[in-house]
Amino acid sequence: NLEEAGRHLLFLRPRRFGKSLLLSMLENYYDVGRQAEFEAIFGGLAIGKEPTPLHNRYFILKWDFSCVNPRGGVERIERSLFNHVNASIEAFARRYSGFLEDEITVTYEDPFISWKSLLSVVSQTPYKLYLLIDEYDNFANEVMMGAYGQYATYRDLVQQDGPMKTLFKGVKAATAGEGLERIFITGVSPIVMSDITSGYNIAKDIHFDPVFHDLCGFTEGEIETTLEEIVQESGVQKERVGEALSMMRSYYNGYRFAPERAEKVYNPTLALYFFDQVVRQGRYPRKMLDANLAPDETKLEYLGRAASGRQAILDLVQRNDPLEVTEIVDRFKLEEMLESNEQDNEFIGSFLYYFGMLTQGEESGNPLKLPLVIPNLVIRGLYVERI
User: Whole domain around residue 256: which residue ranges?
Assistant: First the structure.
C-alpha cells in the first residue's frame, strides 16, 4: 500500500485523471481532525473495516499549485505562490486550533517564517505533519508551455535561488526531524521536479509501479458495474450495457501505466462525463470529448513547434505506427525540451506519454523496445485537429 511505498512520494498522471480526488481521500483518511467522520466515510469500504494504525494520526497541510497565477513576471508569480502557501498555513491554524497549544504566526512578507512557525507549533503536539501537494507543476508548466513560452521566467522560478526551488528546499529540510513525516505530491510530468532536483531530491517515483497502475482511473470492471447500476435505476434496456461498454472502450479506454499490467484504465473525467449524459439525457453524448480535456491541445502545439515533434505527430496519425522507445524518460529538464529539434523518440515519446497523448502499448517483438500508442479515439481526434 501507499504507507509501505515510502514517506515522500511523487505520483504522476495526465490531467483530469482523478489525482485531486486521490488527495482528498488521503486527507480524509489521515486527518486527526476527522476521526469522528471516519466510520461514515470509510466504514463500508475494505480500508474502513481493516484500517491501518496511521489513520487519523496526522495534521494535514494541503497546497494546490493550480491556484497559483502563472501570468506576469517572476515577482508576480512568486507573490501568488507565497500568498497561496500563507493562506494554506492560515487555514491550517484555524482548523487545528483546538489541537495546538500556541498560535501559528503567519508572516505574509515571508512564507518561510510562517512555515517555520507552523513546524514549531506542531512539534509541541503528539502528532506529525502530512503535506499534500496537488498539481505541483501546474503553474510552472503554464509558464513554460503557455502561449508566450516564458522560458526565462520559468528558469528564474525553478533554478538557482528561485521561489519554487527555495520552497522545496524548505520542505526537504522539514523532513529531517522538524515534524514533517509524510509528503504526497501529484503532477503531470517530471520536468519541474528535474529542474529543482537539488532542492528536493528525496521524492520516490511511484507512477510506474504496477501496484499503483489503477490507483487513479477506472478499470473496465468498474465501468461495467456502473453501467449496470445506471441501467437498473433508469429503466434503460439491459442490452444497452454491452453497447455502451463497447462505445466507451473505443472512445475512452486504453491507458496503461505499467507494462506488467494487462488491464488498461479509463480516463475518469471522460467516463463520468459519459455517465452524466446517459443519466440526465437518457442517451449517449453527441460529443464524446469532455471540454475539460481540450486545453491539453496546447501541449501538442508546444511540441509541434519542433520539426521532430511535428513529424512524430504526423506519423502517429497517418501511419498508425507505435512510437518505439527504449524507455520512458523519468527525468528531463528544460534545456532538453528547448533542444527538442535534435531529440529522438525518447524525448518526444516521453513528453506525449506524460501529458496523456500516448500510452504504453502491447509488448512488441523487440524486448528492448517499448511501444507507445494513441490511447483512444478521443485523443486521436485531438491529433487530427492539430494537423
Answer: 220-281
By CB atoms closer than 10 A (0-12, 13-18, 19+), residue 240 is middle
Q: What is the pLDDT of residue 313?
A: 72
Helices (H), 287-333: 297-304, 307-318
Give the closest residue to 197 by CA, choosing from 154, 165, 155, 162: 165
Q: What angle do CA 41, 43, 49 make, to 5 degrees?
A: 140
Report the number of distinct structural domains present in the chain.
3
Q: How many Cβ atoms sit within 10 Å of the Cβ of residue 254?
A: 23
Share of the chain above pLDDT 70, in %: 89
pLDDT in tens, 25-45: 999 999 999 999 999 999 999
Cβ-contact 302, 154 below 8 angstroms: no
Residue 215 belongs to a domain: no
Sign of CA dihedral 221, 211, 350, 300: positive
For residues 63 and 119, membership in a common domain is answered with yes
- Report how far residue 232's alpha carbon sits from residue 228's, in angstroms, rounded to the nearest whole number: 6
In the listed set 156, 183, 207, which residue is the last one of a domain according to the structure?
Answer: 207
The predicted structure's pLDDT at residue 119: 98
Same domain? 159 vs 127: yes
Q: Select the more confidently predicted residue: 338 or 357.
A: 357
Asked whether the predicted pLDDT for residue 295 surpasses 50, the reply is no
pTM score, whole prediction: 0.92
**CA–CA gap between residue 65 and residue 11 (Å, rounded):** 15
Measuring CA to CA, which residue among 322, 225, 308 is closest to residue 266? 225
Indicate the SS3 state at residue 375: coil
Amino acid at 29: Y
Assigned domain for 191 exists? yes
| Average of per-residue pLDDT across 195-217 | 89
Q: Average pLDDT, stretch 288-292? A: 72
Q: How far is 58 from 126, CA to CA, in rounded Å?
A: 9
The DSSP code sequence of 44-80 is: TSHHHHS--TTTT-EEEEEEEGGGS---S-HHHHHHH
Q: Which residues of 89-99 are buried (b: 16+ CB within 10 A; e: fewer)?
A: beebbeebeee
